Amino acid sequence: MAKETVSKNTFKNLPPGVCVPWEQKAKELGEIKGDPEIIKNQWEQLDAFAYMYLWWWVQR
Amino acid sequence: MVNLTDELSIAIAELDGDKVMALVKERLQAGVKPLEIVKKLQDGMTRVGELFETGEFFLSELINCGEIMKGAMAELEPILAGGGQGYRGNIVIGTVKGDIHDLGKNIVVMLLKGTGYNVIDLGVDVAPERFIEAVKENNAPLLALSVLLTSCLDSMKEAVTKVKESGLDVKVLIGGPIIDDNFREYCGADFSSNIASEGVKIAEKVFA
Amino acid sequence: MADDKLKLYEERKKRFLAAMNLEKPDKVPVRLSLSEFVAKHAGYTLQEIYYDLEKNIDSINKLLTDFDLDAITGAPSLWWAGLHDAVGAKYLKFAGRELDPNTQFQYHEEAYMLPEDYDAFIENPTEWILNTFLPRLHEELSEPGSYRANLSLIKGAAGMAMQQGMNKKAWATWAAEYGGVPAFTAMSKAPFDTLADTLRGLTGIMLDLYQRPEKVKAALEVLIPHNIFYGMATSGGEMEFPLFMPLHRGSFPFLNPKQWAEFYWPSLKQVIEAFWSKGKRTLFFAEGNWTPYLESIAELPEKSIVFHVDMTDMAQAKKILGGRFCLSGNVPNMMLAYGKPEEVRDYVKRLIDEYAGDGGFIIDAAAVIQGDAREENIRAIIETAREYGVY
């Protein structure tokens, strides 16, 4: 079987539905000129889609 | 029920893997014959089979016991001279064509091996021709066929029919959770069971 | 929606929901968990429905035209074999590739999670799935970062979205044009099954119970919120119909009673209670025999589940769970494949006489109905329930 070793995690104790938390992304984005809520909302939606894709392979 | 007196047999029945391994190594060093050690392990396994039958043990215990046995046998098999000696007989087993399920079959294999038979396990999705070849090659008096899916019952019937048509002198046992007497008759098999531990009793009859 | 179909949809839905709420509908509802049978009935090979999403969906149109069912479980194949090929997923074998074109798909179990993975899994399961689990499970992802690996992630995620989009559209059509009602609208699992089925495998989990019980408990604890989230996310906000929960390793005799009470039940109970507190009922699809555990299951909040009977003792289920939860089941699949319509008729009559009297009962087969079921036997279930199951 490929991939015998365990990779180290970047994040710990994330809530369900989250792959990369918005708080982390917001830090990286720095100054946001418009409404951060709009950006956050879209970030979280796509992040949750990625989450569902990953868990879809496990929840069956 | 067997009354266990040997420490190794008791350790197997109590699922104490560390103790089993330690005792096997200790006895080998002390010069005990490997076959005698195997016999003690088998006594323990027989007891485990009985405990499963009476409902005191569940699959979790059986599987755990099987892994302990595997570990012990890995230690013993290389030293057992000539393999075949000391076996009570050859049994060919496999899951019928079209079905890849092996949980039930593996439990039966474990119990049969544990009680001293040489089990030739052909695995899953096995064509009738392969069963026939293996029975011939090993001169096996018993062939055991396993099935889980109802959609593979026709495949079971085909396997039994072909084996019977081949004219080989072999008893056929069919097994699986949905197998009953009606289906055994319909297939033309000699024995049937939906309980793993009954496989051992049927083998006793065939090899009596 | 055509008026007559809308009326039919409302009638069936009312009947189905009433039973789940322990009320007496006009008739005993018929909910059949049909899978590969649907393909056979529509004249498709299994390879066609596994590989071609349109045929998979179209087969239900034919089913709904020919059979009067109060609730259906959706397209016969849950899985799209083409998507599995695109990522090289190892755990399902499909008709037309590894198996003959008309053979039932099969699950090939392995321990894709190893004992040494527990710590990383417990720390962050989502990241562990992407970095460690998927590269083991998906042949195409075996060298993460490579051209093929990156492609497999694009294809896999796009494929899931395509399949979900098509299914969503199909449900709208089934409702509008055939009055088709969904048996469930979400999916999740018992945390122990999540860990035991796809991650550690049967042998792996059984050894873990003896060798590293604390890790198992910690992993189950971590899984609880994920399994709740997964269920609510797959419901898409729909709250009237139940959530499908296929239950596996909790059946008798996998675990001993102590293990069941310690490892299987507490996390499952929390997940079901969380759904119920949000207004979502669980279809407790108890595959195998659950008779020894009925007393524990009775602890769940009233009406929070529909208890599906496969090989569980129906009389015991009625005695212990009746009046508390709706029951469903359990025409034996062997009978549907090898029995005669008269036997099926007698069996359904007996179910109605003995278990449906005060409402809270749904007729179904014991297990998912595959390609071996005979059409006349499926008809016998429906006709008997319609004639005989009037309150």
How is this structure best described in words?
The complex is a heterotrimer of chains A (60), B (208) and C (391). Chain A is an all-alpha fold and 60 residues long. Chain A has helices at 22-29, 36-56. Chain A has a domain at 22-56. Chain B is built from nine helices and five strands. Chain B has helices at 7-13, 17-29, 34-53, 59-76, 103-114, 128-138, 153-165, 181-187, 198-206; strands at residues 90-95, 118-121, 142-146, 171-175, 191-193. The longest helix of chain B is centred in the N-terminal third of the chain and has 20 residues, at 34-53. Chain B starts with 6 loop residues before the first helix and ends with a helix. The mean pLDDT of chain B is 88. By secondary structure, chain C is of the alpha/beta class. Chain C has a domain at 37-63 and 80-180. In chain C, 55% of the residues lie in helices and 9% in strands. In chain C, strand 6 (282-286), helix 12 and strand 7 form a beta-alpha-beta unit. In chain C, helix 2 (36-42) crosses helix 4 (53-66). The chains are: A mainly alpha (60), B alpha/beta (208), C alpha/beta (391). Chains A and C meet through helix 2 of A and helix 6, helix 7, helix 8, helix 9 and helix 10 of C.
Topology of this protein?
The complex is a heterotrimer of chains A (60), B (208) and C (391).
Chain A: H1 22-29, H2 36-56
Chain B: H1 7-13, H2 17-29, H3 34-53, H4 59-76, E1 90-95, H5 103-114, E2 118-121, H6 128-138, E3 142-146, H7 153-165, E4 171-175, H8 181-187, E5 191-193, H9 198-206
Parallel strand pairs in B: 1-2, 1-3, 3-4, 4-5
Chain C: H1 3-20, E1 31-32, H2 36-42, H3 46-51, H4 53-66, E2 71-72, H5 81-87, E3 92-93, E4 106-107, H6 118-123, H7 125-137, H8 147-178, H9 191-211, H10 213-235, E5 243-247, H11 257-277, E6 282-286, H12 294-297, E7 305-309, H13 314-321, E8 326-331, H14 333-338, H15 341-355, E9 361-365, H16 375-388
Parallel strand pairs in C: 1-2, 5-6, 6-7, 7-8, 8-9
Antiparallel strand pairs in C: 3-4
